[in-house]
Amino acid sequence: MSTLIRRNVAHVSQAERDKLINAIVQADMTKLFPDGVSYWDKQDQIHQATHVHGGPSFLPWHRELVNRFEALLQEVDPTVALHYWDWTTDPRNSPDGQGGFVDLFTGSNFGSSSGRADVPFDSLDNAGVFDGSRDQTGDPADPPQEITRNISPGSPPAQSDNAIITSADMLPQAQQWTQLRETIEQSPNHNSIHPYIGGTIGSAHSAFEDPFVFLLHANADRLWAMWQTVPGNEWRLDPAQTYGDETSDPVILENLEPWAGGSGLRPWAPPENQQVIKNSRHLTVVKPPCYDTLPFSVELTTPATLGAPITFNDIPEGATAVRAAVFLVKGCRSMTFTVTSGPAAPFSVFSTLPLPPTTPSNQLEAETRVWFAYTGSSAGDVADSSVTIRCEETEQEWTIPITANTVPWPTVASLLVLDKSGSMDWASGISGKRRMDVLHDAAPIFVELMPNNDALGIVSFDHNAYPVMGVTTAGPPVIGMGRSTANTEIGNLEPNPAGATSIGDGVFLASNTLAPVGGFDHKAIVVFTDGHENSSRYLSDPDVQAVINDRVFAIGLGTAANLNPAALDAIANSTGGFLMMTGAVSNDDLLRLHKYFLQILAGVTNTAVVVDPEGSIKPGQEHRIPFYLSEADIGADVILLSPAPWAIEFVLETPSGKVINAIDSASIPNMTFVNGNQVHYYRMTLPVPVADGEHAGIWHAILQVDEGQFKEYLSTFRQREDSTALRRAIAHGVPYSLNVQSRSNLTMQVQVIQSGYEPGAVVTLRALLREYDQPVPNRARVKVAVKRPDGTATTLVLAKIEPGVFEAAFTAALPGIHQLTFRADGETWYGRPFTREELRTAAVWRGGDNPPPTTATDPSTQNERLCELINCLLKDQGVVEFLHRHEIDTQRLARCLQQICHVRRDDAGQLQTIRPGQIARGNLSELRSVLGNTRADEFLTMLGQITG
Which domain holds residue 515? Predict the structure, then answer.
């Protein structure tokens, strides 16, 4: 449906009328349907094939006809609207809305009022020559013999607009539609107007050979639209109510023809089959077009209550928030809003002034927002002001209070849950490194980059969970108590060779450890594991599920089949976190694992990743890596990850060309350079106070390696006698990843939603872009690079499904891990370029949809109960004497149980339960030998009776 406003054709300019007339002529001369019939001639063919008159569908069918013809005209000229003729006026002497009059029936308008219409529609008929006219040939592609008029004297006898649209007001709601449609169609209105014009329009058989008929029917439609939009009668816009008693009438429910293909008319019938199936209750039929006479109003909807303030609640220090006064504009008139006074500092008008006019389109209503901004100052500050907004057309004014308060930047307490099961002692796939060594390398990245006021703790797990470090504030970079303690504990963590894997135990202890911790705005659990669950507690156990109240993030080291991470992925997604998996790891993947920890840190701290490129650099090279920061960014971390960051000279270049190195940063307020073991980074608050203040624009990270540093890097491989790594380093240089993160008012949140975990599952990729907590509309794009398990790759362009929301999907046909890189780019509110980037993974594997294990379904739980039973029995003196009487060696039995069952202890070291351990074949044989004694029959029978 058109978004243009249909106006009184006598009121528009001559240029506007010329556009409409020219579009009609060109629709006949240059635009053809597939059957060779012109757009214009097809209208007569449509009308003759259907003749919808004298019933409930008269108005809706003709609305569809008029709407469709207007759309065809807009193929000729997109700026054309199908205006109406006010049939209460004499078309030869119609008021022009400016105090004058216009004759619509002249050669410069719609042709003659008597006899042949002639210019400008002389090309639409054959000038009265019978030969070759469609009347003779029956071919709709031929012109009619002639278009004639015979207009009656004076003005038409039609009722006034008000008389028509109020004609049914005294009737019950269910009867109003019938009365209204009959009033519009019957005399003295529509049915009298056709003979008033006379000639071609006077006959239903030929009426749609004269273009003026569309102005007549646009007026009939306008009157229906005015009735529909009378304030307080919103039910008239509801397809289920507007037709009242005739809502279920067969002609209301039947498909609108010929467009549904049932009348045999091309192109809606074969061979083109361009059918459009809709009936009179379709929303596009019920929803009226925009006419200039529809009622209009302006209403303040936010704040919803008169006198209520626009509230900036709990804005973090340094963060800018925007809020809007929202107005609902109804009708078809343009409305202009101005800010006549206020607000006072620290508030500001965020909208670009002057505000553009708000014009509802065919939806008959539109919202306009006047935006205001507040930037958090110091924690505890409060502010208030007010603003006055005026609508110029209605002369309404609204004075709205504004209030704000500032809070500290949100802090996070994180609990690292680290795997120490036996498999962590296995080779990782990276030369010379066990899986535990990989954890030792990667986990400190998270620790070193945490904000100073955030906190962390550590638990470890195998088949049990163990407290390692209580929740401690990170403190200053490198030397902070929380950081140094955490890095020491991570470095000291070693696998338990006999340890199974109970991720549920680890998460259970982590949740209970975090629960009493106060003083932080958010909490998060970060799991690192290399194996699937094979010992209770399990993640799917009800007692584990019951204690998870925080976001869960996870990194899985290994393949999807080995990790079997369905339960972990489900918990992460349901809590607002995410799971990332490495797949099979090789020498090239250590940096990727480091990046995973960085990505999870960004998720934990709600930080935006700006860019995340990687590469390798050799002596003599300079890598200039560009990245955009904008006015929406509050601060940034520019992070260099590398196995040897000390070998790389790392400086920043500001948008104005100023170079900042590590030494410079020490003298710049709110800027720090930190050199950790495997990470160097600049942390800065924006704007950076150099030159005139560096903030929005293109920044660069500049990397170089000098010869001496490179030789020192190579010597590390010679010392390890790792010739493969040495050759790789000589060929490619020092590997690195440059990760830029910003604390920002412009964020991208992404989700990976899987229909299942078996090959063939559908993976839906979703991204949400928000700026100042509002969706980013029509100025951004999102793509996802997909790397499949077999190494092949593709890029998906996410479709915008609503403002700021983007989606796409693919089928994960190959078993394994699909690596996903979300990349967004666009323009900020003020037209500055921005980028955002997020890493995720999706995994499918055979058996992936099998139910995850629980304690209740784990067969080994039965063995656990048997261990508990036997241990309990052996503590009873009567049982011991019974065994002795039956010549069962209790000491030998105890040794077997000690080797087969291991003791689970709680945090205080007290006996809690007993579980099956790693059972060696020899131990089982020995136990069978003990219990296989023929004198032990009674004991075995007793056990059977006890255990059921």
Answer: 412-601
Considering the domain architecture, whether residues 277 and 350 belong to the same structural domain is answered as no
- pLDDT of res. 881: 81
Residue 877 clears pLDDT 70, i.e. is over it: yes
| 805 belongs to a structural domain | no
Instruction: State the pLDDT at residue 276.
Output: 96
Q: Residue 695 burial by CB count (10 A; 0-12/13-18/19+): exposed, middle or buried?
A: middle
- Cα R_g (the chain), whole angstroms: 39
Instruction: Give residue 733's region: left, alpha or beta (phi > 0; psi -120 to 50).
Output: left
Please say whether the beta carbons of 391 and 335 come within 8 A: yes
- Same structural domain for residues 424 and 547? yes
Instruction: Tokens for 516, please give them.
Output: 């009493």
Please give the Cα distance from 609 to 596 (Å, whole number): 12
The secondary structure of 49-60, three-state, reads HHCCCCCCCHHH
pLDDT of residue 915 exceeding 80: no
Number of Cβ atoms within 10 Å of the Cβ of 875: 8
Last residue of a domain, one of 744, 778, 800: 744
Q: What is the pLDDT of residues 929-942, one digit of tens each?
A: 444 444 445 455 54
Which stretch of 188-197, 363-372, 596-605, 873-882 has the lowest confidence by average pLDDT? Answer: 873-882
Q: Say what the pLDDT of residue 381 is.
A: 95
- The mean predicted confidence, pLDDT, of the chain is 90
β-strands 671-675, 679-685: how paired?
A: antiparallel
For strands 649-653 and 697-704, give the pairing. antiparallel
* Domain contains 39: yes
Residue 407, beta-bridge partner list: 316
C-beta separation of 635 from 685 below 8 A: yes
Distance CA 589, CA 815 (A): 20
Name the residue among 63, 422, 446 with its Cα closest to residue 225: 63
Which residue in the block uniquely carries the two structure tokens 């010329």?
18
CA distance 120 to 130: 20
Integer Cα distance of 53 and 59 in angstroms: 9
Q: In this structure, are residues 761 and 815 in contact, taking their beta carbons and an 8 Å threshold?
A: no
β-partners of residue 94 are 102
Are 626 and 713 members of one domain? yes
- 250: how many CB neighbours lie within 10 A of its CB? 10
User: Which whole number is the average pLDDT over 497-508?
Assistant: 94
Residue-level pLDDT at 587: 75
Distance CA 558, CA 580 (A): 10
pLDDT of residue 361: 60
Whether the CB-CB separation of 396 and 390 falls below 8 Å is answered with yes
- Residues 278-311: tens digit of each pLDDT: 999 999 999 999 999 999 889 999 998 888 999 9
Length of the chain: 948
Greatest alpha-carbon span in the chain? 130
Examine residue 303 and say whether the peptide bond preceding it is cis (omega within 30 degrees of 0).
Answer: yes
Q: How far is residue 47 CA from its own chain's centroid? A: 45
Instruction: For residues 867-872, give the mean pLDDT.
Output: 72
Q: Which long-range contacts (CB under 8 A, 24 or more apart) does 347-351 make?
A: 347/372, 347/373, 347/374, 347/383, 347/385, 347/387, 347/402, 347/404, 348/372, 348/373, 348/374, 349/373, 349/387, 350/322, 350/772, 350/829
Structural domains in the chain (count)? 5
Residue-wise burial string across 570-585, b where 16 or more C-beta atoms lie within 10 A, e elsewhere = bbbbebebbbbbbbeb
Three-state DSSP at 293 gives coil
Of 469, 466, 442, 465, nearest to 455 by C-alpha is: 469
Helices (H), 632-684: 662-665
